[in-house]
């Protein structure tokens, strides 16, 4: 039945290991078929009447079983490492996307807050941003905008403005004064125009 394995004569464990490694790299299922075929052949030989053939077949059978187990473990280890690498790369990609999104939002709010106050500044070119902090809650961003700008006496004033940016309507509200500051759509159009 498995006579095709009669002519396979691999004597050293290193040769068997080498075959197993080549098969694991290429196609584990084919290796299993080959090894199982060899094992069946050896089992048939083991049932022979000749005791020397039986002992030799038993020894070779044990070696092949060991090699199959080692090969299976190596295959599982390779698959595990491959999966870990895939998950790590996906996590890095998501972190990079998240960082880029945060940078984009930071830049947007920095420009956005400047547009809100630039018309009220005595010298708009003296504007220096300290920080823009924001946090999202539902559809709204709550923004704290701290900046410095020249006052009428030549010195700098430090100011803190707070805004509520709501995506569901077209209004931007100030938390401090609780009034509508400016139509959001007009402000966004101005921001887009200045970027271009």
**Whole-number total of structural domains:** 2
Helix fraction by DSSP (H/I, runs of at least 4): 55-70%
The secondary structure category is alpha+beta
How many strand units?
5
Shape: rod-shaped
If helices are DSSP runs of H or I spanning 4 or more residues, what is the number of helices? Answer: 4
Question: What is the C-alpha radius of gyration, as a whole number of Å?
Answer: 37 Å
- Residue fraction in strands: 15-25%
Spatial strand order of the main sheet: 1-2-3-4-5
Low-confidence stretches: 1-7, 176-181
**Terminus-to-terminus distance:** 78 Å
Secondary-structure blueprint:
Blueprint: H1 13-26, H2 28-46, H3 51-117, E1 128-137, E2 140-150, E3 156-166, E4 171-174, E5 180-183, H4 184-195
Condensed summary:
Residues 54-111 form a coiled coil. By secondary structure, the protein is α+β, with helices and mostly antiparallel strands.
Task: Please give a handful of descriptors for the protein shown.
196 residues; alpha+beta; 2 domains; 57% helix; coiled coil
What does this protein look like?
There is one protein chain. With 196 residues, the protein is an alpha+beta fold. The protein has two domains: 13-85; 101-195, no CATH class. Helix content is 57%, strand content 20%. A five-stranded antiparallel beta sheet has the order 1-2-3-4-5. A hairpin with a 5-residue loop joins β2 and β3 (156-166). α1 (13-26) runs antiparallel to α2 (28-46), α2 (28-46) runs antiparallel to α3 and α3 crosses α4. 10% of the residues are buried. Residues 54-111 form a coiled coil. Keywords: Coiled coil.
